[in-house]
Design brief:
With 199 residues, this protein is mostly beta strands. It has 1 helix and 8 strands, in the order H-E-E-E-E-E-E-E-E.
């Protein structure tokens, strides 16, 4: 599946707006049903062997120990020679939707979850580096990244209204659309960290 820069930019904007509206609608419905369940806002980082994900983290609790979360952020890519080409680097914006189950009714301590990211990346690559036949190119890719995660959420502060949550996730990077040469994809492991305010 190939796409132009124009259509990709519009698709990214439309997808982000749709996800925000969907999350807001779900959050409003959950607040009406569970107005005492926590709502967390913060920042999130996930490091993996060939890059770094960063973004704004939103999470809303519902039921007894369940939560949905949304991240809107940036994917910094540095595949080096671990991808298809001798050097691959770039980045792009995207979002994450996820579900968590907390093992404590306080929506804290140990949790397990499932997430799916969608990233719209631009990757610059090179081959035959430092030779007379060095060549390079650019690939615009859409990456689907489903993962399973586990972690531990600490409640901090006198009123326990701040959180800190390290996590570990396993999954796959799957290039579902590509305008350009193939670039790296495959299994992924992510070491994560989020922190912020609980309302």
């Amino acid at each position: 599946m190939y796409f132009t820069k124009f259509s990709t930019n519009h698709f990214i904007l439309s997808a982000v707006v749709l996800i925000i509206l969907l999350f807001t609608g779900i959050n409003n419905r959950l607040q009406a049903q569970d107005n005492k369940k926590p709502f967390d806002i913060g920042i999130e980082l996930q490091a993996y062997p060939t890059g770094l994900l960063s973004g704004i983290h939103l999470e809303k609790g519902f039921g007894q120990r369940e939560a949905i979360n949304l991240r809107i952020g940036h994917n910094f890519i540095r595949h080096r020679d671990l991808g298809v080409h001798e050097d691959e680097r770039g980045g792009g914006f995207g979002f994450t939707l996820g579900y968590r189950h907390y093992f404590s009714p306080t929506f804290s301590k140990f949790f397990a979850g499932i997430r799916s990211d969608l990233w719209f990346n631009k990757v610059n690559w090179k081959d035959n580096i430092g030779t007379l036949i060095e060549f390079s190119g650019t690939s615009n890719i859409v990456v689907l990244q489903p993962t399973l995660e586990g972690g531990y959420l600490f409640l901090l502060g006198q009123n326990e209204d701040w959180f800190l949550a390290p996590s570990l996730a396993f999954g796959f990077e799957i290039n579902i659309a590509n305008d350009g040469a193939d670039v790296g994809q495959g299994p992924i492991i992510l070491l994560g960290f989020s922190m912020g305010k609980r309302f």
